[in-house]
Design a protein that fits this description.
homodimer, Ribosomal Protein S5, domain 2, Alpha-Beta Plaits, seven-stranded mixed beta sheet, four-stranded antiparallel beta sheet
């Protein structure tokens, strides 16, 4: 196999992602254009992976290279290819942490794309997925793929199976736009998982997989009405909505403004709405943002189409 | 609305159907070309619906027009359109009863298409679905749609939701063929339902809806490998396989013969295999049939593509 060019310095971007899509808990996720994280790696002769700088995290991320997810996956990568390359890691968080937008996934994926590029692409992008999933295990105790897979590959992704890992890219209707609202309340992923029931009624599960099937059919047939009808959640939303202040008010505002669907992004507190085109996404975000402002709830709004590319190389030199 | 021509005598066919497709319990079903039932209706001046003849049922079906599903749905139909038309019903069972092939659905759907034609098509085919579902309630205690919808409309059908009723036609890969093996053991639908657990682990449900999503993606993308990988059942098959003698032997024989997927048709005892083309379907049926013969298990074999049309009018005069 021909080794590609190696680099001294690499900077990458990996996007935020929305997982679950209401009825597809733990199996569906899609990538956004914005927000996202940037990671920069620089070779050195130290023989170790170290954190050089972290910006935008408000001091929340571990500076210890053992505990930081981005540096940890760089180490996993180097172990896998049997390298003792010294690397200084810079992490630029450009999205909220613990937000339900796949913040840890964005950092891991950006770091893995960066180190793979730095080292001359010894692995394929597909090979990076299990390493990114290990990053998720470190970050939240569970090696889930519904943020790292879309952050890595882009698009709207189905994780059909974890053992063996089976990833399916689903088509995305061209006009589909996403309004993202992140209210600044804390919903740690571990806690949001711990409140889920271990067992669920078979009757509810049947409703859920009818909806998942409808969602996939809607994506292939470009049927936004079916997409909206399918994106209801009988299992997770009823348990988690209480973690998000004014969830039902926001849902009603989104529905009134013509949202195709509205739900919790990942484990929250971020919520998302699907809209037919950017102007409708703006119309949905506006009243929700106004409501949160009047409720004195600090929040961020993002508008984005589904990002078909996933993580991107920004600089390699 | 212009009333279409009415008839004195109508004869119809409605096909057998395979529901569940392993991972799509209660939400997926498809129609076969063969076997199926025929129903004939003749007007008379009695003012009542009566059973004139039943063939092919081995004397198992009720001759009482109140209790027979086919005559009962004819009555429901006449009630709905406010008619007191006298009708003599003939039912020709051309498929095994209590087989998991939607036998009651085939009779109900054939009867409803027949009476609608006889009366000059006052209802659409879509209007007939809720009446056919009422027939299922009478036949097995549950107004499920995963046999009546494919028998009525043909093709491979998703019941996305029951309330409100939302039916989605899914595309079928052109080369997809089905081998059907019906071992003559009794598995009443009511019993097969009663052994299902009321609650299931969330972890298993997630696997199941990942697979349902994969199955739908496979149908749209014509990916028979993904179809096969997706058609595993973590919920129902493990509970029901014990009701079917030598289920795992038949499954192994099907897999060895190149089956794309193998599973229980409806609530059994019929099993089905998907194959890429008729010759492979024959190759799958052959060793299973030989095995059942050597085990002294009486059985029937059917080979069929997916029937895209559903119930058909045979004679109207």
């Amino acid at each position: 196999m021909m080794q590609k060019k190696q680099f001294q310095y690499v900077r990458t971007f990996a996007p935020a992602s929305v997982s679950n899509l209401n009825c597809g808990f733990d199996v569906l996720g899609f990538a956004l254009h914005t927000p996202g994280d940037e990671v920069e790696l620089r070779r050195n002769n130290s023989g170790v992976v170290s954190i050089e700088t972290i910006t935008g995290d408000g001091g929340l991320l571990p500076r210890d290279a053992d505990k930081n997810t981005a540096s940890a996956v760089v180490r996993l990568f180097l172990d896998k290819i049997g390298s003792r390359q010294g690397i200084a890691v810079g992490i630029h968080k450009k999205m909220p942490l613990n937000s339900g937008l796949g913040s840890s996934a964005a950092s891991s994926v950006a770091a893995l794309l960066a180190v793979n590029t730095l080292m001359g692409e010894p692995l394929t992008r597909k090979d990076l997925l299990p390493l990114a999933m290990e990053g998720e295990r470190l970050a939240c105790g569970n090696a889930h793929a519904d943020n790292v897979a879309p952050a890595l590959f882009g698009g709207l992704v189905l994780i059909r199976s974890y053992t063996p890992l089976d990833i399916v890219q689903l088509p995305v209707p061209e006009t589909l736009f996403c309004a993202i609202i992140h209210p600044e309340v804390s919903v740690p992923t571990r806690e949001a998982r711990s409140i889920l029931p271990e067992k669920i009624p078979l009757r509810d599960a049947v409703k859920q997989w009818g909806n998942v099937a409808g969602l996939v059919a809607a994506l292939y047939s470009n049927d936004l009405s079916l997409l909206g009808r399918s994106m209801t959640d009988h299992i997770v939303e009823p348990v988690r909505e209480h973690l998000i202040p004014d969830f039902n008010t926001m849902k009603q505002l989104a529905t009134d403004a013509g949202a195709i669907a509205f739900g919790i992004s990942g484990s929250g507190p971020t919520v998302f709405a699907f809209a037919d085109g950017l102007p409708k996404a703006q119309n949905i975000a506006k009243p929700i943002s106004a409501f949160l402002t009047s409720s004195k709830m600090p929040h961020q709004v993002y508008l984005s189409a589904i990002n078909p590319l996933g993580a991107q190389l920004l600089i390699a030199e």
